[in-house]
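Researcher: Structure prediction, please.
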Amino acid sequence: MAATCPWCNAPRGAGPECPKCGANYAKAEAIRKQGRAGAMATAPVAAPVEEPPKPRGGIQLAPLTEPEGIQDPALEFKFCLAAIPAMLLVAILFNAFMPFLQRTFLTMPVHELGHSVTAWLCGFWSIPTLWKAITAETRGFVTPLVVLGAVGFTAWRAWTKENWLVVALAGVILLLQLVGTLGIKEKTAMMLVVFGGDGLGMILATLLMASFYFGKETNLYKGSLRWGFVAIGAAAFVDMFSLWWSTRSDKGRIPFGEMEGIGHSDATKLVDDYGWTIDQLVNRHVAVGVLCLLALAAVYAWGAWRAWQAAQDSQARV
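Model: Predicted structure follows.
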């Protein structure tokens, strides 16, 4: 046996390893003579752990923790807890002191989009502007195909990414389009388009606020778009719903009349052209608003709880 380490040529020590370089004498000698370490070559290699196959047929539940893109789960929980109540409070104050600015720049775009989205789902061509949705008087052929293609493509993309929430929403929209375009008469559809200004407008405003709790891996979160959406949604909803809520006790606040350059108001059309009573006009708008608030409360509770779970998990890992 050599008196020096076969690896660094230092004097050999009494133990199995070189005190200078730390090499194992037996393995270093084998590498020097054979080009490999016999003991290492015959060592068993651990078999790779295979992940169970990912099911593709069933619906998979989302994890309780937030996506990895969340930078600070504890801060995100505070945002999820405070964002909607704070924005609604700001919107109420804005509505009390500057209602004209709120209605002009925040409510009207959502209101007119409500008219147009209802028209698209009922087969009418429509373009929303700031003060008026330019809508065709009769159903067309191209608009239903465009809507069908856009929603169908969205559903297909979501299916390939196994985003079942978007798939479900697309399915609901396609069902609404089927009923709105083929299941009701044209006059009834036009009545829904008129009601859709504040009716669907409140629903769209609620969706804008609820978007705060979704899309954490998208630009809603990464680009801070959700803050703008929740602000616009809160302002538009407060303005529309507060008006109809107040008409329960003060019918004089119902927006009857004619708007210069636009024509009769939506409330006037629903009563004069479609035969709604005053009570029906008020109660149907209020009912939509109350249902929106209940849905928003459910999403708020779920979103805040999910963010709290993520914050607790993050703290436990520290």
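Model: Residues 5 and 12 are 5 Å apart (CA to CA).
Researcher: Thanks, that helps.
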